[in-house]
Amino acid sequence: MRNHFDEQLEKMHVELITMGALCEEAISVSVKSLLEEDIALTQKASHIEEEIDQKEHEIETLCLRLLLQQQPVARDLREISAALKMISDMERIGDQAADIAEIASFMKGSNAQSKVHIKDMAEAAIKMVIDSVDSFVKKDLELARAVMKYDDVVDNLFVRVRKELVQLVSADGGNGELYLDLLMIAKYLERIGDHAVNVAEWVEYSITGIHRSDAVPQPEE
Residue 161 CA to chain centroid, in angstroms? Predict the structure, then answer.
């Protein structure tokens, strides 16, 4: 019975890795659609979002089956409940990546995106998403905590992009709407970083039994 349970847990890990890879691809494709002004990439981002939604449903079903059909001990319960929380944040990452692509579809020919550090923000956000999922699969507490700390990098880049856009609006008010669209994209990337932090916090909980919002330790195995 335990062997079967462990096999199902491993399957959950594999599915989470897949979902994390889809999130990474969604961010990459959406930002690439902005930088390269490629409508085909905008459509691809939408399709990836649908795949992420489907993967969320599959993982949720698997987690509930583990809870209902098996008898997980305390540590297993933490791991499964953490996974259920994580996929919710990962689904939001997919939504926000698709939102970036949608905004990008209205910015063709503007070249405004090349004037700010949007690409750097995207790369930092992708790193956070990848590392947060890796920390869960590897049960790597230090990596999870590194993701939380790295959020400062994304936040600082957001502040930098915002300042750059203020300067651009002052110098070129005629394109103010485009610059506001870029600010919205930067805000979505900042939120993606926040969701990666949420994932990392649930990884910490799955390992330690303590969530940062709750100082009361959970029972050990």
Answer: 20
